[in-house]
Every structure is written in C-alpha cells, then in structure tokens.
Write a structure and sequence with these properties.
Blueprint: H1 8-17, E1 26-27, H2 37-49, E2 54-55, E3 65-73, H3 80-91, E4 93-101, H4 107-120, H5 122-125, E5 130-133, E6 148-151, H6 158-162, H7 164-170, E7 182-188, H8 193-208, E8 213-216, E9 229-234, H9 241-248, E10 251-256, H10 265-272, E11 275-279, E12 297-299, H11 305-316, H12 320-331, H13 334-338, H14 340-350
Parallel strand pairs: 1-2, 3-4, 4-5, 5-6, 7-9, 7-10, 8-9, 10-11, 11-12
Helix pairs in contact: 1-2, 8-11
Length: about 350
C-alpha cells in the first residue's frame, strides 16, 4: 500500500490486509502535506502493527507486487517526490486498487477533477483495475465508466480495532432477551453543522414529548431509570469506553448520526445488541444486511433534521415484542457478519485476496 494519509478507513484496511497470507508492505510517512488529526491518531497504531514492513516513501524495496493499493485524496495531495515514487511502484504491480476519497465538492466538481487527474496522471489511473470509494460513493462518475467500483465497509472506531481488550469488550456476547434501561441513546461529539442541528432537534422533541425524559450521561448508574428514558451523551458529556459499552448494552436503540461521512456507530451498536437508527444515505458503507423494521430503523430523507425526530416518535410506538424480535435479529448477525475474524475474512474475500 502506498499512502500519504493513514485515515481511520485506511488504518482499518491495513489491519484487514495484515491477516492475509502474503506479506504486506506499506509506504507511508508520519506526516502528511496537511495537518490531519485522524492521521496523527492512526499512524502510531499502524506503525506498531507493521514495524517490519512499514517503509518511508523514499525507501527502495526490490520487490514486485501482486496487488498494489494506493490512496488518492484531492485535499491531501502527494508531493512531486511522492508522485515519482508512486509511479515506480505502479510499474511493479500486477493488479492495482485505487483507494479513493470522493468527499469533496459537488458531483460536477468531482467529475471535472477526475478528468483533470486522468489527463495529468494517465500512467496511474489507466493502470487501475478497481476503485474502492473510502467516503462518498457516487452513483456515477468518470472512474465508474471503465473501472470496477465498490464502497469501503466501515469498522468500529480505531481504538476498538487495534486494542484487543477493547475489541473483546465490544464484541462480548449478550442476552438479547435482557430488558434494557433506556429506550434510546444519543451520543457523540458535536461534529459538523448538520449533526449539531440534529442534536438540537432531538433534544427539543424529547422535551416536547410528555412520556419521555432525558438522562444525563453522568447519571448512568442511577438505579431508577425506566424504559422511556433517553440517555444523552453529547459534546462534553461524551462517555469513556467502559461507560460507552455499558450504555450500548443497556439501550434498546442508538441514534447513529453521520460525521463528515459514515460513522462507525452502527457497527458498534449492533455488536452490543442495541438497534441502530441510521440514515439511508450511507447504508452502502456497512457490511451488515440492514433492513428497516427488522434489524434497524432506517431514516428516509435523512438530510431533513425533522426526519430524525420523527424516528424518535416512531420507536416510542414499538411494542416490547417488536423490540425483542429486532434485537434477536441483530444477535443472529454476530457469527455471520460482526465478530472481527468474520468481518476481516469477508473483506479480504471482497478484495480478492
């Protein structure tokens, strides 16, 4: 793999590829051409995992590659030296998979940029066999016209992927019949503007609804909670890992608001037996067969903040029997889709490795 941005998605792919039978090398440097918090967070995790096979971009490795992955993000451009090095590695590769970040601008802007890239770097993009879209997954673009394409499938957050103890806690088995203390959890950092608007809309709707109350994240150990309580853990009230696992395992539903693009929360909530409430715009980003009213609640027209408060009112009308049935359905996904070994195996097969 050749990359100048070890983002959470790239770090997860590295973790998946690391379990392939063939040796796996990475060309990546500590710093990118722009300051990126995600990169600074994920690079040390990858560095610890791949000490022997992690190389700086300038390294000379006398090997041919059966598969070469390379990342491409317009907001994190390669330097001229990195471009030259990437050109050399592409010449040595039998099969090439482009890891493409399409999360910028409008649909038209994306197409125009791709045309410019094809003209400027034909030796790169004409050699590409497949395109994995890391963030946005456009229905059509220039690459789609002549390349096989597929979306990246999200994992839990990186702390849970790379830390075995935390991973074991997240994927610990549970009893789907156990009564939960909270009807729903709303959690996360404030994030982008749209996410903040959804938080405000949900909080306003909770306050307007007479038969429901809000429990602050500092009160999660209070024993008299009832099933019509929403656990609120937003902004400064975000949870530590132990409390996060506790809350997820004690909630019927979890609101999974997107961040800049997809969020790992649907994977994490499903692993804990909490039914995810998610928008329909990023369903392609999950290796989980989500089905509305069966194992999740899907919000249509999710770009409208009112749709999120409507989902809250919708779940308040679900019977205990329906909620139990939905939780039993997500429990059945553990062995087929969720546990890390199965997820990694499915992704390697998907990548043809």
């Amino acid at each position: 793999m050749f990359t100048n941005n070890v983002s959470p998605g790239i770090a997860n792919l590295i973790r998946i590829l690391n379990f392939a039978e063939e040796s796996f090398h990475i060309f990546a440097d500590q710093k990118t051409t722009q300051p990126l918090a995600d990169h600074d967070l994920c690079f040390p995790l990858v560095s610890e995992l791949k000490k022997q096979y992690l190389h700086p971009h300038k390294a000379e490795i006398d090997k041919k590659w059966s598969v070469l992955f390379f990342t491409w993000a317009h907001w994190v451009p390669y330097s001229s030296e990195q471009i030259q090095k990437l050109k050399e590695e592409i010449k040595k590769a039998e099969r090439i998979i482009l890891l493409y970040d399409a999360s910028f601008g409008t649909h038209l802007k994306r197409i125009l940029q791709q045309i410019r890239d094809l003209k400027k770097y034909p030796q790169f993009f004409r050699r590409v066999n497949e395109v994995c879209y890391l963030t946005e997954y456009p229905s059509s673009d220039v690459f789609s016209l002549f390349k096989k394409k597929f979306p990246y499938h999200a994992s839990p957050m990186q702390a849970f992927v790379f830390d075995q103890t935390l991973s074991d806690q997240l994927f610990e088995d549970y009893n789907p019949a156990k009564k939960r203390s909270y009807c729903a959890t709303v959690a996360g950092t404030k994030g982008p503007e749209f996410r903040q608007k959804v938080f405000l809309e949900l909080l306003s709707e909770i306050k307007r609804t007479k038969n429901i109350n809000v429990t602050d994240s500092h009160e999660i150990n209070v024993s008299d909670q009832n099933s019509q309580s929403v656990l609120w853990a937003v902004g400064e009230n975000t949870l530590c890992y132990d409390a996060y696992f506790q809350v997820m395992r004690d909630s019927d539903f979890v609101f999974c608001l997107p961040g800049t693009y997809w969020t790992p929360r649907p994977v994490e909530s499903t692993a804990c037996g909490s039914i995810p409430i998610l928008g329909d715009d990023y369903l392609h980003s999950y290796d989980i067969p989500f089905e509305d009213d069966v194992n999740c609640v899907i919000i249509k027209n999710c770009e409208d903040v009112k749709s999120w408060s409507s989902a809250l009112n919708r779940i308040l009308g679900f019977s205990d029997e329906k909620i139990l049935s939905m939780r039993e359905n997500i429990h059945k996904l553990r062995k087929t889709h969720l546990v890390p070994e199965v997820y990694a195996q499915r992704q390697r097969k998907r990548l043809g490795l």
